[in-house]
Fold this sequence. Notes:
Helix content: 25-40%
Distance between the termini: 64 Å
Oligomer: single chain
Number of helices: 12
Amino acid sequence: MSKFYTALEIAEKLKIKKTTVYELIKRGDLQSSKVGKQLRISEEQLDEYLNRTETREPLHVPTFQPESSVLKRDYLLHSSGLILSGQTTPALELLLSRMAAHPQGMPVLQSHLNSYNGLYSLYFGKVHAAAVSMKPEEASCLVPGVPLAFVCLYHFPIGFYVLQDNPKGIFTFQDLDREDVILANREKGSTRRIFLDHSLMEAGVDTDNISGYLNELVSDLSTASAVLSRRADVALGEEAVARTTPGLSFLPMGILPMYLVLEASSLDKPGFAALLEIIRSESFLSDLFGQTGYDVTHTGEILYL
């Protein structure tokens, strides 16, 4: 018969505070069970936690230092460059490298912001353009009263990262509230988090029942690393990361667009013509498809809202 421990006994075993044990349970890092009305941790659940926290070979996850607001302000006011927000993707890296080499190109400062925060910065004039993966009608609501141009970059598959061969049989959003499943979540405002929350609402899944829902990470590489190191069982991200990460499987759950969003009037300003020319070039389309395999059928098309 399995032995059960109280939170205090676990705290004493691990030499941590009792409140830390509750925090581990809340984040989904440590599984627990209800015995009557009391919270208990079985020996197997404790062993599972200890095994997951053993030292493993981690994925290389780049860290991004917060940009200095003074630097961004000075760059915006005193240079002829552009500030573009967006989290690192192969498309943005390719676009920025081409912009630097273009005869009419300008220096571009990348601000590592997610979709929601990028639109917020666009609204307040802190960036010139934002890389956003949201429906245009939803994105335009975050920049009220401003005519916008949505330049399509590509469409990409979004789905679950799971261990190779999907040992826990995770196939649907309803599976996320299973007691044996731990989620590695993304931060609020990110494309993955917005897509997840919409999908959970449509599926009728209560986020309070999802282990790890409050455990927020800030990139696809970090959530993929959490799954690969067995600190989590599933995460939501784009296909390209899973394809280049041995040991992971990718389960597609939908297709999302990626847009470069800017004020419509900006298209007539210096630098943006070069940006658009690059996006619409055959070499950009070819290299982007070759690197990611994503759908570039509508790349370069503009939607005005």
